[in-house]
Amino acid sequence: MAEHAGIEELIDDLVTANHILYNEGVVDGFGHVSVRHPTRPDLFLLSRSIAPGKVKAGDIMVFDLDGNPVDESSTSGRKPYLERFIHSEVYRARPDVQSVVHNHSPAVIPFGVTNAKLRPISHMSGFLAGGVPNFEIRDAGGPATDMLIRTPQLGVAFARTLGGAAFALMRGHGAVAVGDSIRQVVYRAVYAEQNARLQAEALRLIAATGGGEINFLNDAEAAGADAANYANMDRPWELWKMRVAGQR
Ligand code: MN
After folding, report:
1. 238 labelled catalytic
2. Which of 35, 72, 144, 216 stands 20 to 30 A from 66 (CA)?
3. DSSP letters spanning 117-163
């Protein structure tokens, strides 16, 4: 990979993203983040199967869009994540997507198993406007799966549910954020979790104060706020990066 200028920098950002997502409570021992290869759109980079907080540059593997590791010299003996097909099939279905996060962060889970719809409650999460799809694995995998996207077929089904959205829930499992860069996808994963926490808090306040409804951002506000934040994507990244400095 050394012939591609910038690949080392991209791997460095991918390692940092793993550490940030752990530090910000988006991933724990499980979950993963990937990035599309900068010059080969039919490939993507993803760590071997270890806890994101422990990922180092030497753990990064290269996969094709069937989810097969392609760099045998660097992958021999390495175990890939079972759910790498989330990444491979999203990259196949969405040419605009350059980076993918899959996580099980606690606050989003309730929104996948109830009628409560995850919606943008503050200007930091305008990317949730337009509806958050919820993947029902029983539709594609039947009633007796282990809930994991462990085949390309389930990955295809998930990508179909995701459609053109920036974020999707997975019923009883977690969520997936997609973006046009590592920075954007980390931002989305962090603020989707925060939005879920705040939305649940607002629902508790409503219950405690005798009723009413959450006044969500409308579509125009969400789009405006999202564009404003997009211009400042580097700011939270640099802060989150500072917090994980020295973890490699
Ligand atoms: Mn998972």
Report:
1. no
2. 144
3. PP---SGGGGGGTT---EE-HHHHH-TT--S---SHHHHHHHHHHHT
